Amino acid sequence: MTAYSDTEIPVGGLFEEERSAEIVNARISEQANPRLREVMEVLTRHLHAAIKEIEPTHDEWLQGIDFLTRTGQMCSDWRQEYILLSDVLGVTMLVDAINHRRPKGATPNTILGPFYVADAPRYEHGASICLDGKGEPTLVSGRVLDTNGHPIAGATLDVWQTNDDGFYDVQQKGVQPDYNLRGLFTSDAEGYYAFRTVKPRHYPIPSDGTVGNLLGDLGRHPHRAAHMHFIVTAPGFEQVITHIFTPDCPYLHEDTVFGVKKELIAQFVHQTDVSTARRYDLQVPFLAVNWDFVLTPA
Ligand code: BEZ
Ligand code: FE
Question: Do 164 and 290 fall into the same domain?
Answer without folding.
Answer: yes
